[in-house]
Amino acid sequence: MPILEVNNLKKYFPVYKGVFLRPKGFVYAVDDVSFTVKRGETLGLVGESGCGKTTLGRCLTALYDKTDGNVHFCDQDIFSLSPKELKTFRLRVQMIFQDPFESLDARQTVKEILEEKYLIHKKHNRINIDDEIAVLLEKVGLLNADMSKYPHEFSGGQRQRVGIARAISLNPELIVCDEPVSALDVSVQSKILNLLLKLQEEMKLTYVFISHDLAVVKHISDRIAVMYLGKIVELADADSLYDKHLHPYTEALLSAIPIPDPETKKERIILKGEIPSIQNPPKGCRFHTRCRYSTDICRKEEPVLLINNREKEHYVACHQYG
Ligand code: SF4
After folding, report:
1. For the chain, is the Cβ count within 10 Å smaller at the N or the C terminus?
2. Is the pTM of this model over 0.90?
């Protein structure tokens, strides 16, 4: 049984205009998205900025309500939880945010930041919080002495370690990591990714890992879903996606990853035009305005995400493979 099952999920944000705030339309941030996440795996969610991946992550953690469809966590519909069930859900599902500086309260010490969850969930009577926080800090590579420091006293990487400590403090089962290394230097990124991998093994965690950077996603993911304008256009295990990608958008994203060997040359595919407005997505295939393989049918009919290789669980939404 998957730990997370997403079926036909839609999240639309209404747009209003004028002094009377008349409804003008919708931002189709997540538009009919379905996938599952297996316990213990990392599912990478990748796409350009504005493709809906962060909104999707917030729906998975019930921070946003749905417009339609459903999300089941361990067979429970997360949008129908009672307040008591929602509190338990928040123990089991956590989020790590992109900017650790913004997600941490600058007026609180690390100890105050980390003890908050124990207090909210009334776990403080049963444990020695100082001991618990000391263990947490060690787990994420920080020192006991860091407990009394404030966020501004840390580097970006150390602040993200505090963010990770906060996310794992109550032994969650699933963590949605929203661009957790995007704001960090390249040298620090790999250390944080390795920390996430170590914690996953130690704590049997499941991750949904959101990033705009396919190279980063490949490092950590078992399977990868590629998103474009609110839709998943390709979903496959990480190796298949890199070696046998099918969708023209994935092809373009992969072509932008630099190869460390200067002798090896590869064609960089420059996508034509701007990313269309998610408020008014193109008819037919949403990618047709930028696709170099586009034909008539692409402008008229929207391709459906279909299985292409059952053994590899490789799905693609493109008329070339329909
Ligand atoms: Fe390109 Fe057509 Fe495939 Fe869309 S359906 S990705 S436009 S070839």
Report:
1. N
2. yes
